[in-house]
Recover the amino acids of this structure.
């Protein structure tokens, strides 16, 4: 029966039935394992891990603020570059004691680079976000300033000047808040 | 002979290549998987972090205390949450502040006053602990400003803002 070799029989079974092949080494040519249960489990695990992993790891932006000091530090007003963020997320800037002027976020980078190269290390950047400004915009401004910083360092290095960054968070006074609202 | 319908009884597909690829993916996802911490598992808000350009500095996973400013998904209220990642330090801080057992959660919803006390104790128990502010991009800057003031008061002048890479 086994030697009959019906069309549906697998090849190794045909061979096993032959009497003279008793002593010859069994060749496992068409050897197969049923992988279906394993594949089931593997797919289950794979989908589980795919759903549970989050690909984006949060990154950080380093911030340092000065220690709390009682006395105010005198600065030269002329070298003060002030940036304001209004409650609606609009950006303004002013040089020294000038009136704040609107500035597009896309122009901030070139503006910061230009002013810093002009005044070298004398320029002091004061960042005054309004208390009701969206936090996302505040971080965006900081990010742009950080990007500009890389270019400033490179350009100043070409001139042989060592960069000293002067940057500070400054609180907006109530009068300034009112003034910004009117702009 | 009459037509006999061929029955495909022993029909087999070679699954080897598929299994190869599947295992490769499985091992990849298994090794890269990072599970949620206890604190993250029970929080009721999702922080939409502010976008920033790609940065190589990643959020450290030990010796860090995180001040989260989140918007509750149900009530829409903004509040501060505080987590000390190091469990040993967390216990020490809670002991020092005489917390009751039901206050000893891995992530605390805190007021500014309590945040001040917690940060002070964190500084005492671990002077090398770093601080990170993890705020939602939609909140008002006031929240962050107040948190920075508390940090400054406790002489923690260098800290991190947690951001998300802009795609």
């Amino acid at each position: 029966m086994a030697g009959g070799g019906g069309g549906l029989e697998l090849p190794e079974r045909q061979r096993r039935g032959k009497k003279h092949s008793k002593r010859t080494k069994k060749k496992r040519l068409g050897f197969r394992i049923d992988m279906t249960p394993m594949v089931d489990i593997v797919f289950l695990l794979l989908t589980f891990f795919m759903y549970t992993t989050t690909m984006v790891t949060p990154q950080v932006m380093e911030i340092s603020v000065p220690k709390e000091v009682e006395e105010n530090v005198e600065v030269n007003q002329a070298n003060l570059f002030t940036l304001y963020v209004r409650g609606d997320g609009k950006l303004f800037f002013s040089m020294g004691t000038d009136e704040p002027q609107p500035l597009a976020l896309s122009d901030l980078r070139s503006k910061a680079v230009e002013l810093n190269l002009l005044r070298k290390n004398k320029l002091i950047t004061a960042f005054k976000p309004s208390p009701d400004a969206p936090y996302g915009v505040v971080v965006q401004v900081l990010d742009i300033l950080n990007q500009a910083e890389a270019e400033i360092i490179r350009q100043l290095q070409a001139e042989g000047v060592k960069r000293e960054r002067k940057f500070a968070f400054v609180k907006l006074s109530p009068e300034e808040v009112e003034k910004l609202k009117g702009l | 002979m009459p037509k006999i319908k061929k029955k495909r009884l022993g029909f087999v597909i070679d699954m080897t290549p598929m299994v190869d690829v599947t295992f490769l993916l499985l091992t990849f996802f298994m090794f890269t998987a990072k599970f949620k911490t206890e604190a993250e598992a029970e929080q009721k808000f999702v922080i939409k972090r502010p976008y920033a350009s790609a940065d190589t500095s990643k959020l450290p996973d030990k010796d860090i205390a995180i001040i989260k400013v989140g918007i509750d998904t149900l009530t829409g209220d903004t509040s501060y949450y505080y987590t000390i990642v190091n469990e040993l330090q967390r216990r020490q801080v809670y002991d020092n502040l005489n917390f009751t057992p039901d206050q000893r959660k891995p992530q605390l919803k805190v007021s500014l006053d309590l945040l001040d006390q917690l940060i002070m104790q964190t500084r005492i128990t671990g002077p090398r602990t770093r601080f990170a502010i993890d705020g939602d991009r939609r909140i008002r800057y006031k929240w962050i400003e107040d948190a920075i003031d508390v940090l400054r008061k406790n002489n923690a002048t260098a800290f991190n803002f947690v951001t998300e890479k802009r795609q």
